[in-house]
Amino acid sequence: MPMYVVGHKIPDSDSICGAIALAYLKNQIGEAAIAARLGELSPETAFILDRFGFEAPEFKERYAGEEVYIVDHSELTQAPDDIAQATIVGIVDHHKLGDLTTSTPLECWIRPVGCSNTVIKMMYDFYSVEIPADIAGIMLCAILSDTVIFKSPTCTTADIKCVEALAEIAGVEDYKALGMEMFKVKSAVEGTPARDLVMRDFKDFNMNGNLVGIGQLEVIDLSVFDDIKAELEADIAALKAEGNRHSVLLLLTDIMKEGSEVLVVSDDSELTSRAYGKATENGRVWLDGVLSRKKQVVPPLQDAFA
């Protein structure tokens, strides 16, 4: 029986590309694996897969009775709904350790780097498995996405070295130019429904018993949101009510100015003051230098709930 390799709900490029790359590696070392996904592709991920000739992984929501290898998270809120009825055989991740638990021993590759695909590159090296050019291409794109082309504070020397090595394998001469192409795709928001934008890169977190949703939209110029910001604010308010969430935050991240305007709806009017030392004004707050949800947004928010 093959294992399913799957990332988190509302998958990003790291989650999708990581599932494909890890499933290939597992098959090469004699462990049958199938790449899967829990949601639709983002425009950026679709661009990456098309660029290197891949179809989207199998869409599969139910995993009861299956063996599952988790990619790019270890959070119960982000896992398949029936994960408790599955056997988790492994986790590869670059986030904080979450609340997934297992009844049997498992393989864990968790490293404090900028992207899960950086860890997967380490796994290829460990097993001495050659990386095909097309898989190297999607892996390097995932790392460029997660590290914001090396601008994110999560970026490490390991991420940069992996991109350089993967670019050589993939035959990509100017990987930074490829990264900018990806972010131009991310910045094309005109005509997209507000709910689709809010949910494009959205994750739920359990923070001391409070459900907190955090979305992020990374663009090269925040002016693309000028005409739709009110719609985004109305939608995160609706999303909060629909999911019985304590708070919903939407980061509008400008990768050129290197900061984020955060749209906030919360049961706690002082939440951002306690978490970031800056109060919201009309439900908005600018956080200079904040690019990473994982490193700069979630940890202080969790401290505020503690």
UniProtKB/TrEMBL annotation:
GO terms for molecular function: inorganic diphosphate phosphatase activity; metal ion binding. Transmembrane segments: none annotated. InterPro entries: DDH_dom, DHH_sf, DHHA2, DHHA2_dom_sf. Gene3D superfamilies: DHHA2 domain, inorganic pyrophosphatase (n-terminal core). The keyword Manganese applies. The keyword Metal-binding applies. Keywords: Hydrolase, Manganese, Metal-binding. It comes from the Bacteria. It catalyses: diphosphate + H2O = 2 phosphate + H(+). One of its GO terms (cellular component) is cytoplasm. Pfam families: DHH, DHHA2. Residues 179-305 form the DHHA2 domain. NCBIfam families: PRK05427.1. This is inorganic diphosphatase. It comes from Shewanella colwelliana (Alteromonas colwelliana). The gene is ppaC.
